[in-house]
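Reminder to self: tokens first, then the designed residues, so the page reads top to bottom the way the pipeline ran.
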């Protein structure tokens, strides 16, 4: 860090009021970038499979785009985490979003030249935007205290919803725009993705100053020095490997259960005579339940606690699995309820797990750890989707739903294990 940057950071160390102001400003900037990021993610994902299907002339490989997004996302999560750790959130997140935007541009050129190789390579790179869109939720927590972190995460997730809803609704508009400039219609949404991802990166690059993670590192270094000198200094984030393991487990399990059941629901509905509008309605309720309750969830996680909301996540996912399993094939109402509960349980798990990760890491290693955890989340989603098809093919949708619900109960002993560790540490500190 240069002397000027250090002096700037030191000014925040000495002023809690400046810290609060920067925390609020960071949240605003992150929210704006997430609106663009959500649009970039949703618009491309909506038509990725259709574009692959059109270019290949077969349905056999229509699922490849999702797999490529996931692999690209997993690799980028690791890179963005390490870049953020070394250079700050601004550089790490900007790099991720701009890379995702370049991937989307590559998809457009692949459609123009009908190049399958370029399409697959570009979709892999496009996954960088997906990973970055998820990692931005951490930036709002760098300067938040323990009672604000889950709320900060939830505000970011709600902002993503605005873009995620707008993106698919602009597919038709962007398709017509693409045709007007001589580009295949299905490549149109990727033009929107490219612009949205690059704009998200520019917002962070221009306005995320001073960098919240670098300021948080300086504040933590000051607190350590104070403790060494014998002064009392509060530290909300002390390294805790068990806490990191619990937070990661919560998010991985909820991701596997959610993706597995969600992936096979449209297939299940299609096999029993439901049309695309009905499938869209059920999935729409599901996606809304994944993001829209976030503000309330964040407040509950901060007020009621991480442990209680993790248990609530497991119970909600179990209920979702049971209802999905027993719902008559012609019952839209029960399917809507099941998939809404599935989204809500995922929401509880993601926010409580993310807050646990932030609580259990120090700023000196936080971004790198967060990137590694997000790799696991991406791979969990991929494995959940792959396993779901095999389970349904060899058994039934009901078996898949019940299996997912039962798996979610694993969250309860995980958080009990963490509480036991906290009680032991409290006893050790007491005596």
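Designed residues (431 positions):
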């Amino acid at each position: 860090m240069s002397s000027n940057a250090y002096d700037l950071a030191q000014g925040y160390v000495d002023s809690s009021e400046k810290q609060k102001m920067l925390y609020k400003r960071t949240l605003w900037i992150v929210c704006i970038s997430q609106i663009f990021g959500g649009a970039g993610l949703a618009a491309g994902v909506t038509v990725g499979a259709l574009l692959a299907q059109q270019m290949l002339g077969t349905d056999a490989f229509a699922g490849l785009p999702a797999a490529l997004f996931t692999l690209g996302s997993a690799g980028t999560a690791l890179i963005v985490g390490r870049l953020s750790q070394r250079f700050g959130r601004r550089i790490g997140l900007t790099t991720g979003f701009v890379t995702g935007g370049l991937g989307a541009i590559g998809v457009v050129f692949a459609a123009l030249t009908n190049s399958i190789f370029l399409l697959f390579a570009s979709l892999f790179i496009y996954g960088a935007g997906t990973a970055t869109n998820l990692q931005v939720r951490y930036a709002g927590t760098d300067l938040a205290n323990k009672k604000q972190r889950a709320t900060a995460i939830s505000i970011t997730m709600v902002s993503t919803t605005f873009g995620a809803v707008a993106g698919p609704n602009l597919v038709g508009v962007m398709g017509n725009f693409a045709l007007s400039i001589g580009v295949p219609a299905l490549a149109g949404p990727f033009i929107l993705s490219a612009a949205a991802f690059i704009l998200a990166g520019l917002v962070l690059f221009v306005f995320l100053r001073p960098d919240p993670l670098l300021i948080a590192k300086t504040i933590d270094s000051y607190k350590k020095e104070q403790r060494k000198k014998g002064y009392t200094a509060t530290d909300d984030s002390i390294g805790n490997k068990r806490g990191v393991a619990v937070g990661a487990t919560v998010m991985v399990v909820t991701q596997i259960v959610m993706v597995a059941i969600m992936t096979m629901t449209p297939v299940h509905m299609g096999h029993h005579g439901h049309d695309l509008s009905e499938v869209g309605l059920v999935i729409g309720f599901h996606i809304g339940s994944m993001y829209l309750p976030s503000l309330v969830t964040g407040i509950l996680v901060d007020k009621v606690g991480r442990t209680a909301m993790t248990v609530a996540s497991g119970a909600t996912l179990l209920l979702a699995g049971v209802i999905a399993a027993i719902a008559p094939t012609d019952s839209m109402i029960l399917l809507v309820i099941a998939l809404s509960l599935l989204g809500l349980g995922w929401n509880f798990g993601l926010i409580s797990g993310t807050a646990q990760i932030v609580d259990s890491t120090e700023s000196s290693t936080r971004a790198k750890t967060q990137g590694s955890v997000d790799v696991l989340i991406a791979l969990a989603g991929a494995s959940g989707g792959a396993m779901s098809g095999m389970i349904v093919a060899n058994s039934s949708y009901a078996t898949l739903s019940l299996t997912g619900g039962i798996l979610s109960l694993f969250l309860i002993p995980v958080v009990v294990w963490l509480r036991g560790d906290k009680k032991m540490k409290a006893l050790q500190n007491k005596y």
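Confidence is low (pLDDT under 50) at residues 426-431.
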